[in-house]
Amino acid sequence: MSWDVLTMLALGLFGFLALVVTLITSLLKQLPELVAAWRSLTTSGAGCTCRAGGEGTAAGDMDAESGGE
């Protein structure tokens, strides 16, 4: 194995590690926003007006009694 191969291998490895560290850092910086968005999405029900007990209807459902009118 020549010095050229070792040098290229070392440069590639350090470049890959720099990329991984950068991606992890950016993800950790965005984590509070992602958690807040997820919580607001789950608490709002994402536009569904149905209840856990099945009493309501989802948005866009037709009533069986009205015949869809």
Number of continuous helical runs: 1
What is the overall pLDDT average?
81
**Assembly form of the protein:** single chain
Q: Report the β-strand fraction as a percent range.
A: under 5%
Order of helices and strands: H
- Helix proportion: 55-70%
Describe this structure in words.
There is one protein chain. With 69 residues, the protein is mainly α. 61% of the residues lie in helices and 0% in strands. The chain contains one helix and no strands. It has one helix spanning 3-44. The longest helix has 42 residues, at 3-44. It is rod-shaped, with a radius of gyration of 26 Å. The model has no long low-confidence stretch (mean pLDDT 81).
List keywords for this structure.
mainly alpha, rod-shaped, single chain, 69 residues
Could you write a compact summary of the structure shown?
This protein is mostly helical and 69 residues long. It contains 1 helix and no strands.
Helix and strand topology:
Layout: H1 3-44
